Amino acid sequence: MNFISKTTLLSTIFICSLSSADSAWAQTSMHIVPKPCSVVQNNNGVFEYSKTTDVFVDSQFDSKNVGSILSIYKHLNALFFNDLNFNVRNVKASGKWSGASGSKCITIKKNDALDAEEYKLVVDNKGIAIESATEAGLFYAFQTLMLASKLDNHSSIPYMELTDKPRFEYRGFMLDVSRYFMPKDDVKKIIDCMSMLKLNKLHLHLTDDNGWRIEIKKYPKLTEIGAWAANRNNQDFTDRYPSNIGEPTPVGGFYTQDDIKELVKYAQQRYVEIIPEIDMPGHSNAALAAYPELACPSVDVPITVVPGMRQGAGSIIYCAGNDKVFTFLEDVIDEVASLFPSKYIHIGGDEADKDYWSKCPRCAARMKAENISHIEELQSYFMRRISNYVKSKGKSVMGWDELTNSTLPEDVTVFGWRGLGNAALKAAAQGHKFVMTPARLLYLIRYQGPQWFEPLTYFGNNTLKDVYMYEPVQPTWDKNYENLLMGVQASMWTEFCKTSRDVYYQVFPRLVALSEVAWSPKGSKDWNGFAAGLDNVLQHLSAKGINYSEAMYNVQHKAVPENGKVKVSLSCDRPDVEIRYTTDGMEPGASSTLYTSPLYIESESEIRCATYKGGVKMGQTLNLNIGWNLATGKEILSSSPSDKVLTNGIRGSKKQSDFEWTDWYTKKDVSFILDLGANTDIKKVVLGCLSYSGMAVCKPKSIIVKLSSDGKEYRESAAKEFSESEIFKLGNFIEDIPFDISDGKDVRYIQVEYKYAGDCPAYYIKNGQQSRCRLDEIMVY
Fold this sequence. Notes:
The protein is of the alpha/beta class.
């Protein structure tokens, strides 16, 4: 169907050219990312455009819009189509067109009946026809054409008929440029990729404990002092010591106001809105290092820009009782509001430690004057006061979901991030709009695949498939919440990034998956189709100089004890690969044994496995070295499911969330019981123990080993206590803790008890926080 009528054609600018179709490509199934609302492919042919292809613009666009549209074409040609042999030429003014009857053209029609970002697209034997009400719609139509073109011959587009519009108005990506200052040109690359994926909101996290990244002319010390930290790049973020007074601070950077204007204009040309975040009242060390008089007088330590997360980073926050703080922040907002045309300013509100507030006479006076009885309401006072000022500048306010801990600012949009983001629903229940960016699924700082192959970061896994399968609207929601949901956002915190390549690696391709969550219709997920379309997107990322993770091709494993054996299951998120493995220590190849079902291991073994596609190795080789001792494959009796890994023969790595460690996170003493399956004589018990000071993982206070022949009567056989210096030793390391057993005759059951070490001491990295214990394996000889 060609939806441009003869009448419209007479008032339309045409540009024409025709070349032969590739019939093989026409028969290929097409997968466009993000998935359109509706697409029908006609497998009878393709349209091929070339450097002589012309584009015609409907005269219903006024002269101003025509000029803007033509600039879009030029931009697309420069940014996307150079390798596609596409060139915009012979563009005529409105109503002045020429073209041969029957020739193939790209034709643009204005259709005011469509939504703002909606478009219609037809590719057939008459050419390419696009309808849209706005330039944004046209822009997205061209992204679709680009991603629908043939992989090895980009000038070919299959015949198709397509209608498309976004599911959500807010399709966002948050970039933290405070922990790692990303150069301006590299931020532009992120914007390029966002626009290709039809993402339209770039939330820039500009300020934090680790650096102030935006020039504020009224307060030059913010960038003279607050933008720079001591060099700790030889240490992981979690292990970095704080700066010393007078120590050189060479690491950092900031954007001048001219840089910001340039970024804003660049983003606008690509239909991306930049939303600035000035975090408050917490995450403010960098600002307070520059202007320490804005901190509470109860602060009793030097205030510096924090290179990492050690010793109270985040506990020094703006003083809520000091009116100069509000004058300062209002002045900052004045300059920020003038630099960013976005209707939004994000004011943070997350993770504000109230310790110094609770000791501050000014904060106490403020609470008394404002009749505030709870310190959380003091933060509410702080945020509502700033929010009112932001609104006076004609802007709308956004903030993190900790705002729901107290009275919300009026009309604030809340970002649900903690856990699954459900705290935002507390705001929705009060009629507030909200955005979902749950840490458990959409925080891109987390591992994106088997952790053996990934650079060190925080917490567990958010795989490509996890992101793709995320559905923000849950069946348990109140029916009104969905109408208040503005959209979704992936968030990239950059603690562990030292280069832009580190950032790109964490972001891509997971941001591609987020684009489909944000754009494509509810209930339309197709993992297999997405994986096929992703390969095309990855080629475009490479062409832009963007590196990305290939963790989606790596083998994931699960090893559990079962009836004295170890059951090893292998899997890969990619649906289009096969797993090949060996058990003889040799590297697997395309002709190695095909994995089809779980493997049952009965003795010390080495499994090597990797994924293959069309005979080509796709992922890295996973080496599973399964050790063997009297405990391997035996049952663990415990209330914690994670304790099952204690006897699977596979040792955990230094990455404490690699799924091979137990995870007791409780202030209570705990225990588990190993059932050897039969009465046995033993001489030694060994426990593998992880210490990772950056995540408060440490030894227990003590470990007691008890033995039993019948599972009823237990006797204490061995015990060890650890000093505070042993428990809270700094670093990230694994120790095997041995227990010599002198009374190990006729033993079937081994009970291990360990005592909670206590909260982390003041000198420790995670001072005051709850400690946790991680063990793997238990080895019995």
